[in-house]
Amino acid sequence: MLGSFDKPVTGDGYSIVLELPVNDPLYDKKKKLLHDKGFGIKEQIPLESSSSPDSISKTLETMLQIGRIIHLNEVELYFGEFDTQSGSYSTRNEVEALNLVLSLVESLLASQMHKQINVWKDLKKAIIDKIHEFGNQNKVDAKIDRNYICAKEKYLVQWGERNGVKTKLEIAYVEGAGRGVIAMEDLNIGDIALEIPVSIIISEELVYKSDMYNILGKLDGMSSETMLLLWSMKEKHNCKSKFKNYFDTLPEEFNTGLSFGVHAIMALEGTLLLDEIIQAKEHLRMQYEELFPALCNDYPDIFPPEFYTWEQFLWACELWYSNSMKVMFADGKLRTCLIPIAGFLNHSLYPHIVHYGKVDSATNTLKFPLSRRCSASEECCLSYGNFSTSHLITFYGFSPQGDNPYDVIPIDLDVGQVDNIEDCPMSNWTTHMVRGTWLSNNHNMYHYGLPSPLLDYLRRVRNPTQQEKTFLPADLEIEMEVLEDLQLTFSDMLENLGDSDFEDRENTSWDVKLAVEFKDLQRKIVSSIINSCSAGRKLVENELSRFMSKE
Ligand SMILES: C[S@@+](CC[C@H](N)C(=O)[O-])C[C@H]1O[C@@H](n2cnc3c(N)ncnc32)[C@H](O)[C@@H]1O
Q: Where in this chain does the record put each SET domain (predicted)?
């Protein structure tokens, strides 16, 4: 349970309870962070009927601080330990935290078992204002071509509506993102932008009903995802398919990292994305060769060879990677699905739709509710997940606009070296990473915009007994060593990335453009770390000379 509301604790005030779920995989670390900020794992937040606007806003901030921590993911938690005093950890996290608090207040208001309804209404208004204010600060302007009329997309929506789809969105062309959806009217928090009946969702059930299942179901290690992928490769050619309108809207080519040509691959030299793409492609090639041409040779009627070439296999993989969603059905089973119409929703780092993917068993539909306002004509986006740009390029073929907080560079360290840290969940990270230091709001001494778990680890390698950070020379010398080492590591990395020597960006192919953009982003991240180390060393030097002058 993330939160609930309670009977009065004091006077005539009611309280809301925010609780860290015990099954949270990051429970210990979040518990420690809550504790460091002065909270327990279960906090009862009271609100008196006489509350002034000032105290309502203080109550809201307290609830948000807890809500943010409850909703942190691993990367946000790794970087957020000392960073966020009151600000947000990420746009996604902020939307989640605000919506958590809003849902609790709404449940309390819906219960109507309290006397002081006005104060809760005021709190609800304050939350909604905050969501709007945050929206205005983080506006991403997408250029939309409303005149883009495509008969195929229109037919699909009409077909959907005949089959029970309800939508407040229309399809348009969004510059740099292909097709997207825009709001037909002003949509508010909680409004359902799109509702898709289960009957038009493409899921594994379709394979079980097909003639392929007799063959595929008997193959060892065959997953339902692979079966469905093979099914879609054939079904797209079926003129009588129930999903013909859907298949007609799919592009002939998906421009994802898996289709990068040799020049783009070469442009990625020195980056981890190069390995990611090569490994992913090798894995798919092996998977293809395990199945083909054997299936076509043994069952040519079921697997016609012309539908099962390597190129078509890769096309289907790109379709499933870039367009599928995981859906929890009413039977409690999670299935990977293609969802007609919802497949036009683009990704954003600041999504309108955050909570989706669970079938509403009362209506047997999949609903896409808004977690923040979307004005008429504005593009409505969801979050595909907390993905790094390298993942988005490899499997989706784009680099998102704005600062991506999940763009981390892993650091290879032998984390087994340090003892005595078991009791300290925050130090007990088994992997370490860095990201652009402009994302940090703490560039002070002992922080430098760098992640605390990494700095603490590097300090403890040098001095396992260090408990407190002091301004004594012995500690300062350790700080200096840590920063020098990091600076050296990242200077080497920058050198490996080479210079940005690419001039004619506009006239190049989509893949080289994407590769070059990615490399620029890597350079920007690595340079920020080098600069922060250098600025940090100056801070330490100043402290050392201050100490010396006192002596
Ligand atoms: C689920 S589809 C969304 C609809 C898609 N734009 C279309 O025209 O079919 C996912 C694909 O949309 C594109 N896309 C999604 N979000 C994007 C974004 N923020 N920027 C650029 N392209 C995006 C990528 O090509 C991605 O593989």
A: 167-385
Can you tell me the mean pLDDT for 496-511? 80
pLDDT digits (tens, 9 = 90+) for 461-490: 988 876 677 768 888 999 999 999 999 999
What is the C-alpha to C-alpha distance for residues 526 and 487, in angstroms, rounded to an integer?
10
Please tell me the number of Cα atoms within 13 Å of 149 on its side-chain side. 2
What SS3 string covers 391-405?
HHHHHHCCCCCCCCC
Q: What is the ipTM of this complex?
A: 1.00
Give the dihedral sign, CA 396/402/404/408: positive
The reply to whether ligand 1 has any atom less than 6 angstroms from the CB of 400 is yes
Nearest-CA residue for atom 27 of ligand 1: 396
CA distance 450 to 79: 8
Protein residue with its CA nearest to atom 23 in ligand 1: 177
Q: Are residues 330 and 185 in the same domain?
A: yes
What pLDDT score does 348 carry? 93
> How confident is the model over 177-227, as pLDDT tens digits?
999 999 999 999 999 999 999 999 999 999 999 999 999 999 999 999 999
Check whether residue 350 and residue 453 sit in a common domain. Answer: no
Per-residue pLDDT tens digits for 511-549: 999 999 999 999 999 999 999 999 999 999 999 998 888
Is residue 340 in some structural domain?
Answer: yes
Cβ of 452 closer than 6 Å to ligand 1, yes or no, is no
Using most ligand atoms within 8 A of CB, pick from 260, 324, 346 the residue to mutate for ligand 1.
346
Task: List helix spans (H) across 138-217.
Answer: 151-162, 205-208, 213-216
Instruction: Pick the closest to residue 377 from 168, 84, 216 (CA basis).
Output: 168
238 and 379 share a domain?
Answer: yes
Give the residue among 401, 405, 345, 351 at the shortest CA–CA distance from 374: 351
Domain end (from 338, 369, 396): 396
Give CA–CA dist 391/160, Å, rounded.
Answer: 31
Q: Are residues 413 and 392 in the same domain?
A: no
Residue 173 Cβ contacting ligand 1 at under 6 Å: no
Is the Cβ atom of 351 under 6 angstroms away from ligand 1? no
Looking at the fold, whether 43 and 77 belong to one and the same domain comes out as yes
Domain span including residue 324? 178-396
Query: Does one domain contain both 31 and 92?
Result: yes
Question: Do the domain assignments include residue 386?
Answer: yes
Looking from the CA of residue 396, the nearest atom of ligand 1 is 27
Nearest CA to ligand 1 atom 8: 179
Q: Are 203 and 336 in the same domain?
A: yes
Locus of tokens 């309290």? 114
Nearest CA to ligand 1 atom 15: 346
Q: How many domains does the chain have?
A: 3
The answer as to whether 168 is a domain residue is no
Are both 237 and 351 inside the same structural domain? yes
